[in-house]
Amino acid sequence: MADGWNSDLLKEVWRNAGVGLMVQDRNRRIIAVNPSFEEITGWRWKDIRGKRCDLVFGCRTAGGKSIPEDVCPGIRVINGEVPRIARELLINKDNGRECWVEVTVFPIKDSEGNAEYIVSTFQDISEKKRYSEELLRTKTLATLGQLAAELAHEVKNPLNAIQIQMQLIEQEISAHREFTKSHVPEITAKVKEEVIRLSVLVDNCLKFSRSSRLVLKSEAVGALLEDLVKLVAPQAGLNGVGIKLEIEKDLPRVTADGEKLKQALLNIVVNAFEAMPDGGTLTLSALRDGDAVKIISRDTGCGIPEDMKDNIFELFYTTKRDGTGIGLPLSQNIIQAHGGSLSCTSSDKGAEFIIELPLEKSC
Ligand SMILES: Nc1ncnc2c1ncn2[C@@H]1O[C@H](COP(=O)(O)OP(=O)(O)OP(=O)(O)O)[C@@H](O)[C@H]1O
Ligand SMILES: [Mg+2]
Fold it and tell me: Would strands 280-289 and 241-247 be described as parallel, antiparallel, or unpaired?
């Protein structure tokens, strides 16, 4: 301990610290809390003294599920699995309400190096959570609003075409002319073509608006990427693209909707193939970066010109003859719904897409 420290000073720090502090024994029984803890959680020392934390807080994940014992941060620290751990948790307050807290747990070890006590710091992040959820909702709604407007615009042209074709049919009928075999099929084929165009558009619209509804569970990013590579390997072979997979050892798990995440990654991988029509290399890597897992897709294709970089995430923006411009905004929507981000860098050597996902939000 540094010079000048004494127990009175420590008591003052304990009393006035702006973060909630809780000390537990190795059976997770609460043996001390400071005033900030009482303020943040609403729990009074006299009501929780000696109780086990799980019986007080009933910790839950973002999806509202109770935290299984094997991923409880306290237990993981007591068992020496991790030296220190930080988690965002939904906990019960004393008044029957709940609140979001960021909890950091670390051990105080005995002379043999075993955790004798664990100390948890508590910070109220309810406001931060509300803000980011609201921001995400607003962004999604704004994008959907934009989609509706674009959709209306796109629907108008085929509808006009259908109308004109129908007028032609009417004219044929009103002139009492016999339908020749060559006229009628031609007209009906055009009508059908336009109707198909419309339904593809509506399907895409539905896919897009459903993209932010997630079924979350604990997922290993490495396994997801391996699945994805299995799926795209035949196509890569045909395109003359070699795939390199680099997954960091002991990569932590993420809370994710595996199928949706694969869909987001698939759009990025398909774009990479399309950017390398003469073959090349696609490197997919996954690594831990602070509180996030990063997934990077790097191709050796044509790259993205600087002045286009801002546009590629816009709905319906495409530079391809047969493109719809839905792939990247859809991927971005899915990744943002996970609380993550999608960004891109590019050079003359190719493009790089970086996905950042927060680490597993369970205990
Ligand atoms: N890896 C890449 N290399 C170069 N350009 C890319 C890459 N990925 C995306 N782009 C650019 O971004 C644009 C938008 O991509 P996005 O996936 O949203 O739509 P798209 O591929 O054109 O059509 P689709 O909806 O069918 O996927 C592409 O048209 C292309 O110009
Ligand atoms: Mg695409």
Answer: parallel
Question: Does residue 300's CB lie within 6 angstroms of at least one atom of ligand 1?
Answer: no
- Cβ of 318 closer than 6 Å to ligand 1, yes or no, is yes
- Span from the CA of 153 to the centroid of ligand 1 (angstroms): 22
Of residues 361 and 146, more confidently modeled: 146
The answer, yes or no, to whether any atom of ligand 1 lies below 6 A from the CB of 126, is no
CATH number of 7-124: 3.30.450.20
What's the whole-number mean pLDDT along residues 20-41? 96
Distance 242 CA to ligand 2 centre (A): 19
Ligand 2 center to 38 CA (angstroms): 51
CATH number of 131-210: 1.10.287
DSSP assigned state of 195: H
Task: Kindly state the average pLDDT of the residues 100-116.
Answer: 93
For the chain, where are the E strands, in sequence order? 20-25, 30-33, 85-92, 98-109, 115-124, 217-219, 241-247, 254-256, 280-289, 292-299, 341-347, 350-358
In CATH, the number for domain 217-358 is 3.30.565.10
Residue 297 CA: which ligand 1 atom is closest? 1
The ligand 1 atom nearest the CA atom of 268: 8
Per-residue pLDDT band at 207 (split at 50, 70, 90): low
| Threshold 0.90, pTM exceeds | no
Residue (of 248, 220, 252, 249) closest to 81 by Cα position: 252
Q: Which residue has the tokens 């020392």?
A: 45
Three-state secondary structure call for residue 221: helix
User: What's the average model confidence in pLDDT over 218-237?
Assistant: 90
Residue 339 Cβ < 6 Å to ligand 1: no
Alpha-carbon gap, residue 87 to 65, rounded angstroms: 15
Nearest to 295 by CA among 361, 231, 344, 328: 344
